[in-house]
Amino acid sequence: MEPLIETRTSKLRKVIAQYWQRWPRTLFVLGAFVYVSLLLICIPDTSATSKLQEFSTREQFQTQSVAIDQTHNQAKLRHFQCVAWRATSKCRPNGPRLSQNDKNCSEVIVNDESGYCEIEDVNSGERFHVMRRYCNGLKHNVPFRCSSAPDFANFHIEGYTAVEKTRIPGFSLPNTVGSSRAQRDGIVMVVYPKLLPSAYATIRVLRNVLNCKLPIEIWFHVDEINGDYAQLAPLQRLAVNVRGISFHPMYNPNAKGFLSKIFAIYNSHFDRVLFLDADNVPVRDPTFLFSTREFIMNGAVFWPDFWHPRRTLFNLHARSMLWELIDTPFKDMFEQESGQLLIDRTRHAAPLELVYFYAFHRPNFFEKLELVYGDKDLFRLAWLKLEAPYHMIKAVPAMAGRSINGSFCGMTMVQHDAEGEVLFLHRNQHKLTGMENEYNAGIGAPQSDEYPDLVIWTHLLSFRNNTNTNLYLIDAYRAAPEFPQSQPCYGKRNVENQKLFELQDITRMSFAGIEADIRHFAFEAARIRQSREVQWVGEYPNNSAQGIVFR
């Protein structure tokens, strides 16, 4: 056998042979290397872009935000001073600047001006843009000055501080109980002289018509009574006869008007409260509400108003200055009607504390800037701010009123339960008086009884079931000559051939007799008041012997 003859290139050939045998793997590695190299060459450097984006975001934050460490939920009040009003164009606070229209801090900002108040942190020298105003950010003819901007900027931080105390172990709202005994359910009502006949009538319906056994708290402000406690005589007599009624005077000088409702709920002796406006009449015993799934799951049930961002009387839309004040994103939903509220006070101490802060903080920006109407939306806003659970009734309000020759005038807001059935009739356009009133002549329907209050519930105008609520648009109007020019109406005037709304005769409904009942009871209250059949002893009624609680 001849020996193998090696040449000078044998080692190189071995290497080539070895790589040739592994060529698929080698080609794969080389291809990957080339691909990555091309990516690195072709893709632009994003570091500069990211830095620009970071700068833009930071600039936008300082331009559009109060910037009081709110993004980190730090409750840090800052010492601000006003610099000036900075005017902008295009009706946007972030629109092009109009420096020629700038104003000093004491000058009034008039209608249809857009811009912002510039403020400065006295300690750090940082400057921020607050009270950012679109042309329609406030209602027409609502003036303001940038001198208010420092307080405006700190408002939501003060609210955060108010809520923080509810997280302290052992905190509870006034008059709530621990777990040692069962929770107390009850009705809370606020009265003042004009509402006394309505309150009497509503309580009589609850007790004598609907057989409701829930205890009732009657709250009143001593200044509104003006020391004449005999005005409460009809209610005291009613309390003697039906029991389960307690009287609660309010002395807080600010707890008047709309704010008395918040004060009463906050200080109620009930753990779970159904608040009713005194002129809001249930057509069924409302006790069942405390057992509904919606209340048990959420601890709070609210009811919608007529109005929403697409049709609002109160300027509550995405560009309202309200959302900046409370540091909460705009929520596209129905406004709230607070003629009835169902709240578990033991479960919702934090949002109730925030509602109380909203109501009694001074200066009151809600009132000063007319951002909301009275107490109407404060509950909803506090729950939204804290992301607390609640249920908003899905059925939109109906209207009770009269229809004459095809012209409808809604004079009462009608609310429903979670199943869409009528539950409350809020007679907010015509308070019961129990007495003759020539001013209202021509509004009411013919009546065959002797009760002087008008019959105004002959028809019910309801939004049709299974209709998109985005199409729910309520009109506020006058309906002369069918109704006096002085009478405000709500609903749809021309009810013939309505595709979205349905007009029904109330006489065919289960609650048809309720209006006759409340008119009767209001007449009864007026007679008691005039005769003063119940005498008051001293400053407060000496009625403990009859089992009436007066706190």
UniProtKB/TrEMBL annotation:
Gene3D superfamilies: Spore Coat Polysaccharide Biosynthesis Protein SpsA, Chain A. It is found in: Endomembrane system; Golgi apparatus membrane; Membrane. GO terms for cellular component: Golgi membrane. GO terms for biological process: mannan biosynthetic process. Keywords: Golgi apparatus, Membrane, Signal-anchor, Transferase, Transmembrane, Transmembrane helix. The chain crosses the membrane at residues 23-41. Coiled coil: none annotated. GO terms for molecular function: alpha-1,2-mannosyltransferase activity. The keyword Transmembrane helix applies. InterPro entries: Alpha_mannosyltransferase, Nucleotide-diphossugar_trans. It is a single-pass membrane protein; Single-pass type II membrane protein. PANTHER family: ALPHA-1,2-MANNOSYLTRANSFERASE MNN2. Belongs to the MNN1/MNT family. This is Uncharacterized protein. It comes from Phytophthora megakarya. The lineage of its organism: Eukaryota, Sar, Stramenopiles, Oomycota, Peronosporomycetes.
